[in-house]
Amino acid sequence: MRGEVQIEAVQPDGKVAEIRGFVPSRTVILVGLMGAGKSKVGRRLAVRLGLPFFDSDPEIEAAAGEAIEEIFAKRGERVFREGERRVIARLLAQPVHVLATGGGAFMDPATRELIARRGVSLWLRADLDVLVSRVLRRSNRPLLKQGDPRAILAELIEGRYPLYAGADVVVDSGEGSPEATVNRAIAALAACPRAILPPEA
Question: What is the pLDDT of residues 85-140, one digit of tens each?
């Protein structure tokens, strides 16, 4: 049932704070690089919060009638980003939910502005070694097919992390269990004033 979240979260001062009944008033938008765990953590977070879960990448594929790899190959990244922006705008017009976005979505100024008005952004931060170990398990990463995955990820970290740092909430997504990351995410969201503000029109 929605609104029945109960966790014990260790705060920075070492005290244990119990969070009961926390439910965000805005959609929670997960941002971060590929391999950060946005989909895996997002699904678990949605269950814990009693909210629907959406992943922008499958939604983009459904809207386009093509796989993301095909969109990149046939039309290029610019067209993909335009479609991504429209899909995220449509999803953010829906009732409160948890939304996992692609790694480049938060880089778009218009998308960031929309997220700021309608949602609360949560950056799942992970270091290079963690990201490399995760992305090498999958072969459907168009950006990683342009060279050495580690070098590409390092370049993406340099270019994107400064903007990801502008997210409302930052949660580390390391080698621990997804459930531990979810616990940290709920604690961080419950402490974020924006999470309980109603979305702007």
Answer: 999 999 999 999 999 999 999 999 999 999 999 999 999 999 999 999 888 776 55
pTM value? 0.86
User: What residue has token string 């531990």?
Assistant: 180
Q: Which stretches of the chain drop beneath a pLDDT of 70?
A: 1-20, 138-145
Q: Tell me which residue of 129, 111, 120, 130 sits closest to 176, measured CA to CA.
A: 130
Question: What does 41-80 look like in DSSP terms, one character per residue?
Answer: HHHHHHHHHT--EEEHHHHHHHHHTS-HHHHHHHHHHHHH
Class of residue 185 by CB neighbours under 10 A (exposed 0-12, middle 13-18, buried 19+): buried
- Write the CB contacts of 17 (distance below 8 Å, at least 6 apart in sequence): 8, 9, 11, 187
**What amino acid is encoded at 80 in this protein?**
F
pLDDT at position 6, please? 40
Distance CA 181, CA 69 (A): 29
Q: How far apart are CA 25 and CA 142, in angstroms?
A: 35
Q: What is the pLDDT of residue 107?
A: 95
Indicate the residue type of 11. Q
Residue 118 CB neighbours (<10 A): 22
Tell me which residue of 50, 6, 53, 32 sits closest to 164, measured CA to CA. Answer: 32
Distance between CA atoms of residues 187 and 7, nearest Å:
8
